[in-house]
Specification:
Helices cover about 30% and strands about 30% of the residues. It has about 150 residues and is an alpha/beta fold.
Length: about 150
């Protein structure tokens, strides 16, 4: 198992470290949050980017007569905001992995962004990615994460 697990979604990055059981028979393998902990990367919502009122533009009618006003469109604004959030998450992951060069790690992210997130990571970060899987686990408790990632003997 990889010692470093990074959980991500479009607004949060959380990194965990795997601690294997020691020589003491009562000690169990467990996960704990790394010193970086969780980072909240609040993605912008459309309402934060655009004004309260939709843009209005003249709408032409028959033969040079104006027939009223039409409302402006968002023109892929939602997709652009998601791409910005994805790049911010990738940059945060790159920063965390750069602090641990050569260490194998695992990525867990929602299926809807997993492939794009992997492409957005720096080549040096991707070089040591051992396993990527889908899941939205950034807000799960440590006990739930341990039951998922640590094999029970």
């Amino acid at each position: 198992m990889e010692n470093l697990i990074i959980l991500a979604d479009l607004g949060r990055v959380r990194s965990l470290r795997y601690q294997p059981a020691g020589d003491d028979p009562q000690q169990k393998a467990h996960l704990h949050d790394t010193p970086e902990g969780s980072a909240e990367l609040r993605p912008h919502s459309i309402h934060q980017v655009v004004t309260d009122h939709a843009g209005r533009f003249p709408q032409s009618g028959p033969i040079d007569r104006l027939a009223g006003m039409s409302y402006g469109e968002e023109h892929h604004l939602k997709a652009e905001l998601e791409n910005d959030a994805l790049e911010a998450v990738a940059a945060e992951i790159d920063r965390r992995i750069a602090a641990r060069p050569q260490e194998p790690w695992r990525l867990v992210a929602p299926q809807s962004i997993l492939a794009a997130l992997q492409r957005a990571l720096a080549p040096a970060t991707r070089a040591h990615l051992c396993h990527a899987e889908s899941g939205d686990l950034t807000r799960q408790s440590l006990e739930e994460l341990e039951s998922r990632f640590i094999p029970q003997h």
